[in-house]
């Protein structure tokens, strides 16, 4: 079975790159974060895959630079089981587990499709259920465990209150991991602490997780859209909504600062950075204001 995600896009965002340097933890104040591109539906010359610019701005706004990770798997399509996106995600997931077990801090953030991908990679199965969540902002229903979470630890108390009561988290997905399916899966339960849930009125689903033993995080909602996407009326832009974008970005980029990987040379680094590409204004025809396209 192939799960196609029409509205829900990206991102497994991961702090990466080549040879690890030194074991001692010192902050890396020049973090570079890889963002997975995904295949377009109708490839054209020079436009085989893309990254929504909002993911790039999200990370840049918190002090990171971005490298696009483009891995094509012809005939893919946006599937979490068979696509270049899913293959690359699987590779980075494995590398992250191995690195972290060696004491080499390697964080991953999966957003929306990326979150769904993480649940598949961890459980080894596709446990997703269809939900009515294509284009709706919701408050988070925090679990008791969220109080001790790494992800929300530095969020101000008033923002946590707003997140719990106002519709600040935008959902653009047709598939979700129901709390029931999560609870039935030992592998998922052992691996992830559930920080929040939501419901579409019928089914309760998991909306935020963090791994117990690894710096691996997932949000079914889109932290990056609030500040950077204005194409849809249901994307919230209140002051609290923008803070949600900021604090989530700050959190993840801080995680990336604990990673000491570097490129082999400055030249290699310069060649890889997303600054080599120009975003295109796509807001007139797409839900994304701007996209980066790749060959
Ligand atoms: C997941 O939940 C759905 C109901 O939403 C169910 O049909 C499906 O069988 C569940 N999957 C597993 C593996 O339990
Ligand atoms: C889906 O959710 C929307 C609210 O987000 C609601 O208006 C609509 O009736 C729901 N559709 C179904 C089939 O439940
Ligand atoms: C929040 O989660 C609790 C525990 O699962 C549940 O009892 C409650 O109905 C949920 N509230 C909402 C608004 O979804």
Automatic annotation (TrEMBL):
Task: Give the E.C. number(s).
Answer: 3.4.19.9
Q: Where is the active site?
A: 112, 222
The protein's matches in InterPro entries, at most eight in alphabetical order, are given as:
Class_I_gatase-like (IPR029062), GATASE (IPR017926), Pept_C26_g-glut_hydrolase (IPR015527)
| Top EC class for this record | hydrolase
Q: Which GO terms describe its molecular function?
A: gamma-glutamyl-peptidase activity
Give me any GO biological process, just one.
tetrahydrofolylpolyglutamate metabolic process
Q: What residue stretch is flagged as signal peptide?
A: 1-22
- The lineage's top-level taxon is Eukaryota
Q: Which UniProt keywords apply?
A: Hydrolase, Secreted, Signal
Q: Name one GO cellular component term.
A: vacuole
**Localization per record:** Secreted, Extracellular space
Provide the catalytic activity annotation.
Answer: (6S)-5,6,7,8-tetrahydrofolyl-(gamma-L-Glu)(n) + (n-1) H2O = (6S)-5,6,7,8-tetrahydrofolate + (n-1) L-glutamate
Family per record: Belongs to the peptidase C26 family.
- According to UniProt, the name of this protein is folate gamma-glutamyl hydrolase
Q: What is the lineage of its organism?
A: Eukaryota, Metazoa, Chordata, Craniata, Vertebrata
């Amino acid at each position: 079975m192939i799960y196609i995600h029409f509205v829900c896009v990206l991102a497994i965002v991961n702090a990466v790159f080549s040879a690890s340097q030194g074991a001692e933890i010192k902050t890396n104040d020049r973090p570079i974060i890889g963002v997975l591109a995904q295949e377009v539906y109708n490839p054209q010359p020079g436009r085989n895959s893309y990254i929504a610019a909002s993911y790039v701005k999200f990370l840049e706004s918190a002090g990171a630079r971005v490298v696009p990770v483009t891995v094509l798997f012809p005939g893919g399509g946006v599937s979490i089981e068979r696509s270049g996106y899913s293959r690359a995600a699987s590779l980075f997931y494995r590398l992250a587990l191995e690195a972290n077990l060696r004491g080499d801090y390697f964080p991953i953030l999966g957003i929306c499709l990326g979150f769904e991908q993480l649940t598949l990679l961890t459980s080894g199965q596709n446990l997703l259920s269809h939900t009515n969540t294509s284009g709706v902002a919701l408050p988070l229903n925090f679990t008791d465990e969220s109080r001790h979470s790494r992800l929300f630890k530095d969020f101000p108390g008033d923002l946590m209150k707003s997140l719990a009561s106002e519709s600040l988290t935008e959902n653009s997905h047709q598939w979700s991991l129901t709390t029931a399916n999560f609870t039935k899966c030992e592998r998922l339960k052992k691996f992830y602490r559930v920080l929040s849930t939501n419901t579409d009125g019928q089914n309760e689903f998991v909306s935020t997780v963090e791994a117990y033993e690894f710096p691996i995080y997932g949000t079914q909602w889109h932290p990056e859209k609030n500040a950077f996407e204005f194409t849809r009326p249901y994307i919230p832009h209140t002051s609290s909504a923008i803070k949600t974008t900021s604090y989530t970005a700050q959190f993840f980029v801080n995680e990336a600062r604990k990673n000491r990987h570097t490129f082999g040379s400055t030249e290699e680094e310069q060649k890889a950075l997303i600054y080599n590409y120009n975003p295109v204004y796509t807001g007139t025809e797409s839900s994304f204001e701007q996209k980066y396209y790749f060959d």
